[in-house]
Write a sequence for this structure.
């Protein structure tokens, strides 16, 4: 059923499945994407939002001043600043590879902001021509931009690090005819071109030109590579006609065109062959186009998001609010006013496990774990079916876990992989650990407060070094430090950046006070070897996570005795260490207690260890583990005896060891594992039930069981096995010290009225006798006993109420009247 619920969320595009999980519910408030210009960074980066000054919008409860606001991908506000730059309206903005926000205004001036909405000086201009002609459009790519002026000229900055603008070749006829204007632009990045320089594709009229610094060439598209397809048209070449929108694929090999007659055409940049030609229902150009990986193209109109693939019918997603498409290397993030989703092709490993009806080895392994959890024998059956493909199944589960955003599903898939790995001898054991390590990092940065929703493919392409750099630039220094430590990376970069950021932000603070503030930071203190001071600061803060960070650091760096001495005098640190060590490091905890003279705590640990050993399945059926258990308890008893305050515990442990030894002997002689860890009472009772009276008497003698207790135990044990003859004989051995009440109780509990009647008349207490008769339904005898009891008629009145609702009351009527 889990597979069905997972696969039900998928959409089929020809023969490929796509999914669109929701990553975040946006935390921002009163943000309407349709009223703003929005720039979203790739690799789960920040989102810049500013009111679009090219639109007439109604102002609500907001200032007339435009504000540039920067959010993380979950809609958490990171920074904001008032926009009051000259130079005309804002033409476009985008994030560079190093997460610098590049903004270009109408006169060609470029304003750069960091993630904290701080203006980076100095400003740069696109040149005199841009200033004179005005910029009308700009197209960004990773680390560069191309601008189009009103005069039809193209200017380019190929690297934002150098910020050197230069003019590209003129498009034929564009600069001469003011009426002729490009309909759309697209950029082919330098790393994908033969020349190594940026190429700009310009659609003018029926032509498409490829423009670089030296020349502008018209390109022609030839016959299609897919023949006899219903989705293909008959005429190609230059008959494509005017193009209204176009985008280049992420690898630079394909160009997607939306033509004047509503066709989507995908052509190869090198081969010039048409790979896809699909006619849409509307000739209205889409507001946005984006590649989804390398398998499909997305087109967005109001309320309709359409995905087109090489073959088959398109897939439609409908929205009742505006969306922004954010291309990534393995899919597209879809940002709306209320949510962030990630549209991607379902990974092959995930499809093999969760596809409805799948019988792949990975699906059977995942199913086997489910059966194992439900204690079903079908788990073993599934494992036998995939025995030869077990390594492949484990690898698929690990890979699928890496592609999941849902933590519970990650955990389930990794459990399935670990389960299968236990039965596979030729599988790399570190694959599960490596994936767990990666997922812990990804889950940490996906937290809405951090808001970097990286997929595992994006993470590998971005690299951990760049991720750490982005975290410290966002001033998430503590998380960056923890990840650096976890991955074994250099922590000095994080600490140095934190210190510099602290100094920069504290320009008015005196140097001496600033030094004190810096040294107050625990991770910094640890990095420079000031463990004592770090421990003091951490315990004073009361932050248990911080205290644990210091404890584990010192634990690894210092010898045990030095470590013990450091934490002994600090109550919070000591208590946290003891709490952790009780669960995970008991041997080390014993050393700590011995070094601090707490012998009784060592004894308690030994006693607990003996109980834990008893829970081991191997510790039953006469296992030799009972020997070590008894020795541990005896050792605990000896340690208790060395302190006057724990005499009781010493005696209890001594008797526990003695009882355990007797129980072990009983199990060995009876060949039944039913004695160990039972109480003295249960041991005696079990011996009598097994008709081993000699052993029962021995236990009674060893532990000085009183006669009263003995009579109760033996009476009920004999009643349990319904040995009424032995019970009667036992009652006549001597006058029972308990009286005959145990015999009556045992017979009544066994529902043997006849046997109970042998002993009820012998009860000396008339109240007890009357109650016993009443319990077996003998109303008249109960009334007689009650009448003779010297209790002021209390028992008689109780019986009157008890029996008044049944026919027996008539038999009680006369005796009651006689008494009254």
């Amino acid at each position: 059923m889990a597979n069905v619920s997972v696969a039900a969320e998928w959409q089929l595009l020809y023969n490929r499945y796509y999914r669109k999980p929701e990553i975040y519910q946006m935390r921002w408030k009163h943000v309407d994407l349709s009223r703003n210009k929005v720039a979203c960074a790739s690799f789960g980066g920040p989102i810049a939002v500013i009111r679009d000054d090219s639109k007439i919008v109604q102002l609500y409860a907001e200032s007339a001043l435009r504000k540039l606001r920067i959010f993380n991908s979950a809609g958490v506000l990171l920074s904001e600043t008032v926009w009051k730059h000259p130079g005309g309206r804002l033409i476009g903005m985008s994030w560079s590879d190093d997460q610098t926000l590049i903004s270009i205004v109408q006169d060609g001036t470029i304003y750069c902001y960091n993630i904290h909405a701080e203006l980076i000086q100095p400003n740069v201009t696109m040149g005199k021509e841009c200033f004179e002609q005005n910029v009308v459009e700009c197209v960004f790519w990773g680390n560069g931009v191309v601008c189009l002026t009103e005069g039809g000229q193209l200017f380019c900055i190929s690297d934002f690090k150098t910020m050197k603008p230069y003019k590209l070749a003129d498009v034929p006829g564009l600069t001469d005819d003011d009426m002729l204007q490009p309909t759309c632009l697209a950029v082919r990045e330098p790393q994908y071109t033969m020349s190594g320089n940026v190429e700009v594709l310009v659609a003018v009229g029926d032509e498409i030109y490829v423009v670089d610094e030296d020349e502008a060439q018209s390109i022609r598209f030839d016959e299609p590579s897919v023949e006899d397809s219903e989705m293909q048209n008959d005429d190609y070449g230059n008959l494509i006609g005017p193009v209204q929108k176009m985008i280049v694929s992420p690898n630079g090999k394909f160009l997607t065109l939306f033509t004047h007659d509503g066709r989507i055409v995908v052509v190869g940049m090198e081969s010039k062959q048409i790979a896809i030609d699909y006619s849409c229902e509307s000739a209205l150009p889409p507001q946005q186009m984006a590649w989804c990986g390398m398998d499909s193209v997305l087109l967005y109109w109001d309320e309709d998001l359409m995905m087109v693939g090489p073959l088959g019918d398109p897939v439609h997603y409908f929205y009742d609010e505006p969306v922004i498409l954010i291309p990534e290397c393995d899919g597209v993030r879809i940002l709306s006013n209320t949510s962030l989703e990630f549209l991607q092709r379902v990974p092959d490993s995930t499809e093999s496990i969760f596809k409805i009806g799948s019988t792949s080895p990975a699906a059977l392994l995942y199913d086997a774990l489910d059966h194992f959890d439900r204690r079903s024998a079908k788990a073993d059956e599934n494992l036998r079916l995939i025995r030869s493909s077990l390594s492949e199944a484990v690898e698929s589960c690990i890979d699928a876990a890496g592609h999941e955003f849902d933590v519970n599903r990650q955990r389930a898939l990794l459990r399935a992989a670990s389960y299968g790995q236990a039965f596979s001898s030729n599988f790399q054991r570190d694959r599960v650990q490596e994936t767990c390590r990666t997922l812990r990092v990804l889950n940490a940065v996906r937290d809405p407060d951090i808001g970097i929703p990286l997929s595992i493919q994006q993470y590998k392409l971005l690299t951990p070094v760049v991720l750490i750099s982005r975290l410290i630039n966002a001033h998430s220094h503590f998380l960056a430090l923890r990840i650096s430590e976890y991955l074994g990376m250099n922590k000095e970069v994080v600490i140095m950046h934190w210190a510099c950021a602290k100094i920069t932000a504290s320009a008015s603070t005196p140097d001496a006070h600033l030094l004190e503030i810096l040294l107050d930071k625990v991770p910094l203190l640890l990095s420079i070897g000031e463990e004592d001071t770090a421990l003091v600061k951490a315990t004073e803060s009361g932050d248990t996570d911080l205290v644990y960070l210091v404890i584990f650091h010192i634990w690894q760096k210092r010898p045990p005795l030095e470590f013990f001495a450091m934490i002994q005098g600090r109550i919070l640190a000591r208590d946290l260490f003891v709490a952790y060590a009780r669960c995970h490091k008991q041997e080390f905890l014993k050393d700590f207690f011995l070094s601090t003279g707490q012998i009784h705590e060592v004894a308690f640990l030994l006693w607990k260890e003996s109980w834990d050993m008893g829970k081991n399945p191997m510790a039953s059926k006469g296992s030799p583990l009972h020997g070590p258990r008894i020795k541990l308890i005896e050792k605990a008893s000896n340690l208790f005896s060395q302190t006057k305050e724990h005499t009781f515990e010493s005696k209890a442990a001594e008797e526990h060891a003695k009882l355990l030894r007797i129980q072990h002997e009983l199990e060995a002689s009876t060949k039944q594992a039913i004695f160990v860890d039972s109480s003295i009472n249960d041991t005696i009772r079990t011996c009598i039930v097994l008709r081993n009276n000699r052993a029962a008497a021995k236990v009674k003698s060893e532990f000085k069981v009183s006669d009263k207790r003995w009579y109760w135990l033996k009476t009920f044990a004999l009643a349990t096995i319904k040995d009424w003859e032995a019970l009667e004989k036992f009652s006549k051995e001597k006058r029972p010290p308990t009286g005959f009440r145990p015999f009556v109780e045992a017979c009544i509990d066994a529902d043997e009225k006849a046997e109970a009647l042998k002993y009820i008349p012998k009860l000396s207490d008339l109240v007890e006798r009357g109650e016993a008769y009443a319990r077996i339904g003998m109303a008249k005898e109960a009334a007689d006993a009650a009448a003779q009891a010297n209790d002021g008629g209390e028992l008689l009145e109780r019986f009157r109420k008890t029996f008044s609702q049944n026919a027996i009351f008539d038999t009680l009527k006369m005796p009651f009247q006689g008494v009254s």
Observations:
- The chain is about 45% helix and 20% strand.
- The mean pLDDT is 84.
